[in-house]
Structure formats: C-alpha cells, structure tokens
Amino acid sequence: MSFSINESQSAFVNPHTCQLTSNLQNTRVEEQDWETVKAGFSKLRPVDERRGLRLSGRTYIDQTNNSAQMADARLAYEIQKANNRTYEFADEKTKKIVRYRSEYYLSTAPDSVKVAWQEAMGETNINPFVVPYGNTIAQLAMEQDFATGGNNQLFGDTVSDSIHAVKSILERIDNPLGEVPEEDEEEYQIVSQREREFYMAFLSKLKELEAN
After folding, report:
1. Is it true that the peptide bond before 132 is cis, omega within 30 degrees of 0?
2. Cα 21 to Cα 18: distance, rounded to the nearest angstrom
3. CA–CA separation, 2 vs 29, rounded Å?
4. What is the pTM of this model?
5. What pLDDT score does 210 carry?
6. Which DSSP letter does residue 16 get?
7. Would you say the C-alpha torsion 163, 121, 114, 152 has a positive or negative sign?
8. What is the distance between the terminal CA atoms of the chain, rounded to a whole angstrom?
9. Taking a C-beta distance cutoff of 8 angstroms, is the pair 35, 65 a contact?
C-alpha cells in the first residue's frame, strides 16, 4: 500500500509497528514495512538510518534492526543517570540544579554551614537532590512551610538549627512516608543510601562547627 507525505503534513511512524499516521488527512495507513516508510520519508530529505527518521519534531528508528543501537542508548542512559547522582560527574544541567537548590535551601544559614555543605558534597561526591526518591529536604521543607504558614527555611540561621534539620532529614530517610512500590525498591535503596551518606558527612562537619 502506498502513501505520500509533504512538508505541510504532520506525519509520524509508530516505532513499534512502523505504521504511518497522517494528522493532516486524519487517516492511518496500515501494514507499512520499514522500507516503504523510509522511501516515503526520503522524498522529503535524506534518511540516515543510524539516526532514524525525523519529522514534526519526532525521531523514529528502525526497530527491526537496531537492537545494538538500543542497547548502546540504554547503557548511555544508565551511565548518565548514575553520574547525575554524583557531585563531580553530573552533567551541566544537573550541576546547575544542584547549585540553585543548595543556594535556595541554605539561603538563611550561616556561611560556615554553606561551606560545610559544599565540602560534604565534594568529599562524598554525592548529589543530595536526586529525585524522585532522594531530595528528602524538599519533603520536610514543604511540611514546615505548611505548618508555619510560609517558613520553609529548614536549616534556619544558626549551626544548631542546621544540626536539627539534618537529624530530621536522616530520620525521614530511615523512616520514609508511605511504601515504595516493589518495582522501585532497588532504585530507592541506592538513592536513599547515598543520600544518607551525604547527610551523615554533613552532620559530622556541623558538629565540628558547633564544638568550635
């Protein structure tokens, strides 16, 4: 079965079935094989099978012959996800988020506490803001905001305030609210363990500050 597409159409290929859908004509062309689909797209622009077909902002790759590509992409994703849990090897977008959140949550804390926070991140090489299972600080800050009617500065403005906050964070890490879905249990354990490691290092530095 043949079909035609042009630059004004919004058309895409189902990456699993290689079916073509044309939004312009509101019709679906069934049972198109990859070669037929590729031929239709190549009328618009050259097709690089390594990168797949791109139209209307979407990219589609031949699912019948790209198992190696998919495996490589999955591996790259897992490596980057692991790197983004770190302080040193995270990508630039993640590093910007870490800097912003660090400044936000410690905005009222003494400079000595802010220095201790940066040192703890550097020494443990841990990003304390990994989501969805990390970032316990966000949970507690939100709860405090509701309880006080607008004060979400969990670390307060003294070293003692910060120590109290970290102890609360560690308590929540060890006793999370609700149950973690079984399929997410392994991910949760990895993230929460590293989050706990970071806050233990941070707490140790805060206690040194308080002692001095």
Report:
1. yes
2. 10
3. 8
4. 0.65
5. 93
6. T
7. negative
8. 80
9. no
